[in-house]
Amino acid sequence: MNAPHPSAREREQLYRDMDPLNLTPLWEVLHALVPREPATPCVPALWKWDTVRPLLLRAGAAITAEEAVRRVLILENPALRGQSAITQSLYAGLQLILPGEVAPAHRHTQSALRFIVEGTGAYTAVDGERTSMRPGDFIITPSWTFHDHGSEAEGPVVWLDGLDIPMIRFLDAGFAENGAARSQEVTRREGTSFARYGHNMAPVRHDAPFGATSPIFSYPYERSREALERLERDAPVDAWDGVKLRYVNPLTGGSPMPTMATFMQRLPAGFRGRGWRQTDGAVYSVVEGAAVVHLDSPRGTQQFEVGARDHFVVPSWHTARFESDAGCVLFSYSDRPVHQALGIHKEERLQ
Ligand code: 1HN
Q1: How confident is the model at residue 69 (pLDDT cuts 50, 70, 90)?
Q2: Mutate which of 161, 178, 182, 257 to test ligand 1's pocket (most atoms within 8 Å of Cβ)?
Q3: Residue 142 Cβ contacting ligand 1 at under 6 Å
């Protein structure tokens, strides 16, 4: 090898001299700091229900909900192992609760969503009000509200937990505390919040009880499904998304949680979607039916064949396209509200 150019040798000495002072030259890292376009380290990933479910049930035999506090298998992005993250900003896990169990009350700064995957008859209690869980229901735990879960079901109940854990960790802004009792005392009958806020009406003299988070804890699948079915029948189908609706905070029209947006969409039978990409990486739970997800990025092309209760992640700025022969319903969540609050959200739809 040739001897380094004098200026190169000088530079290396300069770097060595500044290093102990915790100084480093910007020009060596500038390109990576300000990429021409998003270059996420996250990779697409798929968790098939058939392979995850037996492990969840084994976890049910290995530890009680009480001992685990939350009996969850974390869906870790293969490129972010050890970070409890499915994207750079989002956490995802599958939680199991068995008949008679209680996951004890606590609260934390992190916002959580639950999307029910299997089983009926478990409940979550938020701020003294219980909500029953049914497959396809989308349920919210607002930041800093006490919550506990319990099950009076016949069999296992599993839901997807979506939290903004990596985001709150990044901001070093997390607090948590345990509740005084294992299960919260019930102070409002089930359905009270839904009656107050869930019918395109709102109490005349109530402020937002949970600040920036929706006052509705549960968005039942029955209603989302009905809306999607009607729109598939009676309105134009979008060439990229099929029929896609976003869940809203009824008091603001914005996302149900300040850090996470949630969506449900229906791909009609025979759907051949066009490609799109967006800056918000998204986590998907397949509710019904089956689809093929085509993914493209500079790293390559992939296809996921997905069916009911499978989970997958579409990272930031990866081009995705959906196809479905039999029809499919997809739930998804992302950090889009944060992108929008910062004025940096970007979406491209390919023709
Ligand atoms: C949590 O509180 C729940 O309440 C689930 O069910 C998953 C992951 C990390 C931190 C808190 C729950 C969680 C969590």
Answers
A1: very high
A2: 161
A3: no
